């Protein structure tokens, strides 16, 4: 939850109800771990859970026990995109990394046509600690804003590529978070961005981020 959802509150309740557990499609024995599994009517199962959960949360307590790091030299460049780590929050439960991406010379074609020289696929991350052990991570986009060549600014839905518009020479800014597993003995992080293009098996490795947590 961001400050937008919290709306200035420091103590609040989260109510979970109408909870349903669903399975995912069964993987074949010789599966590719990177392939996507889609449920079908033949294998889809769900279990409804009765009742509800109420969880009391306190932002103020979390802030008191959170360390914030603003790393130096935290930019990487790829094609016409600059990725920057704005801050790293070490909370009692996890590590939260805020990433801002600025993409120049954006057009409808560069967002939708994989043959365009400025096309950028989906960016994923691999994260490693100072011992070289890979850490669990989950990344998601929370904001997508575009500024057209005439100076007009629009906020798009996350993941939107604007194929219903015709434009060029725009600038796009993306805001995303990487949620990373926290271990007590982790002193530094190596974050490796990877570009994945749908329909292609290979991934493109970008320059890595190295962050000192001490």
Instruction: Please tally the β strands and state the result.
Output: 16
What is the helix tally?
A: 3
Percent of residues in helices comes to: under 10%
Secondary structure class reads: mainly beta
How can the largest sheet be summarized?
A: 7 strands, antiparallel
Distance between the termini: 26 Å
Instruction: Give the integer mean of the pLDDT values.
Output: 88
Order of helices and strands: HEEEEHEEEEHEEEEEEEE
Task: List low-pLDDT spans.
Answer: none
Tertiary shape: globular
Beta-sheet strand percentage?
over 45%
**Radius of gyration (Å):** 20 Å
What does this structure look like?
This protein is mostly beta strands and 214 residues long. It is 7% helix and 48% strand. The chain is built from 3 helices and 16 strands. The protein has helices spanning 3-6, 59-64, 108-112, and strands spanning 11-16, 19-22, 46-49, 53-58, 67-69, 75-78, 81-90, 94-106, 122-129, 134-135, 137-147, 153-156, 170-181, 188-196, 203-205, 209-212. The strands form 4 sheets. Strands 5, 6, 7, 8, 11, 12 and 13 form a 7-stranded antiparallel sheet that branches. Strands 9, 10, 14, 15 and 16 form a 5-stranded antiparallel sheet that branches.
